[in-house]
């Protein structure tokens, strides 16, 4: 592929774009497995080198994608099978040993903008333990060992006047968690991934991505603790989808060149700026998906004894 | 015009599509004026004949469109100048004489789906008087004459199990208003009309239109009282916008035929079904626009003495 | 008891007040049973005569009270055992035979006033079937027989300008249900009953009761179909509770006369007007209780084959 | 005064309780003025000595109380005259010189519990400038000088697992504001002060007060920057109000001793624990009052040139 910008937060989609042109990219490994009964596909993209990171437009690290078409649909148990899959992948990425962990979960985004409300809604349903364990010990839960779970919804800069990274940095410095888990709504390239895909990555959060573009770096480098980011795509950028539709339509044509077309017809695309595409039931879907994600995190952070 | 379906609730857009092919359509009159200082354009499309109605895909009647680009933006007074324009056009369409009117305002749509919440949010801010005037007379407001304003938010069929028309018919039969004003969110063809256009029509509500597709006929014919419908486009159908972008891009090409293309590339469009396109700030915009519309209705229904 | 007004919507409490003075009241029968494991007490007060109705301040009919202290507490299954108890008592009161029933459930109250939001929140979670059964038959649910469930949230008079009874009468006339189930938040006399008691009665709704005082008669007499009312006390009237506390404190005193005291100290009670007493977690409690009630109604209305 | 605990967050009420017993308390000065036209009474209680602080149960400092009965009522301008009064008193307490100030406004409380939602609702409507001034300078507002306003809603401990003071301390350390303004809902002793009184104090926030009891110390001593607290009483503790009513009723009795009574009738008071008393329209009132308070803060923090 070419100089046309791939607007996607999903490493999976970034890789799909690339492989059309370069069928074998060094420094990128991919593993995949499929749970047939639950119709859940898990793909791990590992970007190992800086060269590969540049080609993918994503930092070096591991990106796990859980594709579960059922997540979109209502379910009495909020798709416990998907929560379990998330829990398993998250636990593996956390590499927890026998010590108690102190984990701060950060719900990025804006509660008042439906497409951007995933983070705040996920932290609403977490099982928070830090204050109890600090006051009464893990005995309060009849356990030998309890992780100390805390959470924060930092809000968006237009409302706080502070960068999210400033707030998180302050809270991390003060409360000293061992690990951050950051939740955010993502933008996908294809409507086929909307609200049915979960991405988990150990690279943290990079500036300028996400639905709300409210993100500055939340990474191990900037905060001094490991940062795992969990995201679900809730929107597709409108200009991207029109470009994609156009390309599919034109690909039968001889010698069609998307980039040249986009340039020639720049004004025709102008009205799509700041527009996004989503389903009519997004309010209900985001609410349900947030339960599935909360529960997956709750399971991963629960101690067994 | 071609066989490709024009998905728009706006008579203004329906006419634009038509005039490309048939520059003079009998039975359709158009009047227009522009308030320069406020940047408000008012267009009246009058469909006079059944032939014209068929060509336009809209029933015989009057369609007033207020285009006010500022409506999208925040404003301390919720754009009082636009409310005044709405009030003026609505009052003219009501043709109120010196009698007190009993008016039932119906807020269609679904409060829990942002793009479809305009109707419920508008009725939240109306000045309701019927119960007071019935109990204490217009003297309660220090007026000689007061219109009797009532409102209802019937909800959507998936939640009530009843057609909106059944509920409204029952309430109309019981409370006998002189006039219905029905509010609904609309679908536009162009993103340029989103949230900055108000359509007022004396044709009532037709089946199968609107954002939620929850509408069956609410017309003078079905209810026995005049029905004025007020709508604001809050979404654009995704397939339409892709088709439009494609057409603009291709129109330089010799002999491009949209309908043929759509047919050939049907699967490429399939993923756009049930998707809509809207702005990221739609939650805030719908809230603000609903104040502008409520206030316009409040002004139109206020008695001067 | 005396001329001091008993401000309670619960027949159970009305009877308790009475029996202190008149230990055997003709025309009132009481049955009671207790489920020890679930800690659920069910009391049926049957008011059989007009004399008894006058003494109790409640119309002739059957009043079932389910007292379940656990209802107040969070529970993963929203207290399914209480839903089952409600379902059983409701089914018995409905006396459904083998015919399909068309049932309209009415959620009284005001969604925006926490203590009065029970009705609207209960109808949010009902299993609505009428529109599906009318369009596709009970086959759509793989059943031989399906009840036709519809629901409406009429809103409060200050917002609609119409009496609730006008709206319901209109909808009943138009859609002809066989039975109404009306949900409302109640006022109790004792804080010990708040949010842990469900009252079910076949007398419908009487004017001037309930939290919002938005009620006019919704009865078989006024609507032409049987009306079952389900209520949960969410508030206690402040003047009542002060009077009660006072009485308990003073009862050791010789010759204390509550009514005389109330009269002598009228101004001291004046500031309690329009005040109510409730728990700090009422927002969360009403939300949870509404799930328990919805689920009980869903169970009672489900057909077994 | 006696050993019975005065449950009030208002210094004004604490002083009223005291003066019944000790008519002249050394170390407490009181100033008062009344704006007749607006019906606004401003009282300043200055606690100057540790002895006085002990007697009052409040720390040394200045407590300004604005009593404005109209605040309870709806008003198109959200009672701009009260906002102006708040702005004046707040500006005086801030003692701002000609320098730009960096101010962090903290909205304490729980958005999901109506009586405790004042803080979060106030910060929703603040004019936030810090991020703009930091990026573009005060020129972005066409001013020579702009204060840098930021805000945070820390949430409650049950949801975050962190003490509010930990979060605020972290954010203060990171963003280094010159001043904190902390907003919280208060408990009053008398229903006559509910939702119509604003208290402003330079003592910050003391542990264990407020509606939600979610407070630990937020003071200049603990945070290293001046802390001004603004509070509005939204509830009255139920046990207090019953005790007060009882006292008024009994005071005609010879030799009535409240403390002795309370002790003798402890169980009669037990059911009032964790109950509070408030008005039925509290949801709407808190929303309106939050606008009045926000606007007062916005005015006080606005630079004139």
Tell me about this structure.
The structure is a homotetramer. The first copy, chain A, is an alpha/beta fold. The first copy, chain A, has one domain (about 10-300): HybD-like (Rossmann fold), CATH 3.40.50. Chain A contains 12 helices and 9 strands. Chain A has helices at about 10-20, 50-55, 80-95, 120-125, 130-135, 155-160, 165-175, 220-225, 240-250, 260-265, 265-270, 280-300, and strands at about 30-35, 40-45, 60-65, 100-105, 150, 180-190, 195-200, 225-235, 275-280. In chain A, strands 1, 2, 3, 4, 5, 6, 7, 8 and 9 form a 9-stranded mixed beta sheet that branches. Chain A is globular. The interface between A and D is medium-sized, with 31 and 31 residues. Strand 9 (about 275-280) of chain A pairs antiparallel with strand 9 of chain B.
TL;DR?
The first copy, chain A, is of the alpha/beta class. In chain A, 37% of the residues lie in helices and 21% in strands.
Question: Can you tag this structure with a few keywords?
Answer:
homotetramer; 305 residues; alpha/beta; Rossmann fold; nine-stranded mixed sheet; 9 strands; 21% strand
Itemize the secondary structure elements and their pairings.
The structure is a homotetramer of 305-residue chains.
Chain A lengths: L10 H11 L6 E8 L4 E8 L2 H7 L4 E7 L12 H15 L7 E6 L10 H7 L5 H7 L11 E5 L4 H4 L3 H12 L3 E10 L8 E5 L18 H4 L3 E11 H13 L7 H7 L1 H5 L4 E5 L2 H20 L4
Parallel strand pairs in A: 4-5, 4-6, 6-8
Antiparallel strand pairs in A: 1-2, 2-3, 3-7, 7-8, 8-9
Helix pairs in contact in A: 3-12, 4-12
């Amino acid at each position: 592929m070419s100089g046309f910008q791939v607007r996607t937060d999903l490493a999976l989609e970034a890789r799909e774009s690339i492989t059309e042109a370069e069928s074998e990219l060094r420094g990128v490994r991919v593993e995949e497995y499929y749970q047939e009964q639950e119709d859940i596909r898990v793909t791990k993209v590992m970007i190992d080198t800086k060269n590969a990171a540049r080609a993918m437009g994503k930092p070096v690290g591991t990106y796990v994608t859980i594709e579960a078409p059922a997540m979109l649909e209502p379910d009495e148990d909020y798709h416990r099978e998907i929560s379990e899959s998330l829990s398993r992948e998250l636990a593996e990425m956390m590499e927890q040993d026998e010590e108690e962990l102190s984990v701060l979960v950060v719900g990025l985004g804006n509660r008042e903008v439906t497409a951007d409300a995933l983070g705040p809604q996920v932290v609403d349903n977490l099982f928070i333990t830090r204050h109890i364990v600090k006051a009464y010990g893990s005995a309060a839960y009849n356990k030998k060992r309890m992780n100390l779970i805390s959470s924060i919804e930092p809000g968006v800069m237009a409302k706080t006047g502070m960068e999210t990274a400033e707030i998180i940095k302050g809270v991390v410095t003060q409360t000293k968690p061992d690990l951050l888990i950051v939740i955010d709504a993502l933008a996908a390239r294809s409507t086929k991934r909307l609200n049915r895909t979960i991405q988990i990555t150990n690279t943290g959060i990079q500036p300028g991505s996400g639905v709300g573009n409210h993100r500055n770096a939340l990474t191990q480098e900037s905060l001094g603790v490991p940062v795992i980011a969990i995201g679900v795509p809730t929107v597709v950028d409108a200009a991207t989808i029109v470009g994609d539709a156009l390309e599919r339509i034109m690909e039968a044509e001889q010698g069609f060149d998307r980039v040249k077309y986009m340039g020639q017809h720049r004004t025709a695309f102008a009205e799509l700026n700041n527009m996004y595409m989503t389903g009519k039931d997004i309010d209900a879907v985001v609410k349900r998906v947030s339960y599935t994600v909360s529960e997956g995190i709750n399971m991963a952070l629960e101690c067994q004894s």
